[in-house]
Design brief:
The chain is built from no helices and 6 strands. It is mainly β. It has one domain.
Length: 50
């Protein structure tokens, strides 16, 4: 997938049920050069996009 450098976005789900008592939240952000992945509010991955 090619991402335009002029594109800025954030994606967040409403919670993925893992079991009856746990929901996992995943978010992605992109600022024009770096994409970051978050799980339950903690950054888990960083990708530099050229």
């Amino acid at each position: 997938m090619r991402i335009s450098p002029s594109t800025y976005w954030m994606r967040h789900d409403t919670g993925i049920p893992i079991d009856s008592n746990t929901r996992t939240h995943v978010a992605w952000t992109y600022d024009g050069s770096t994409m970051r992945a978050y799980k339950n509010g903690s950054q888990i991955r960083t990708y530099n996009i050229n």
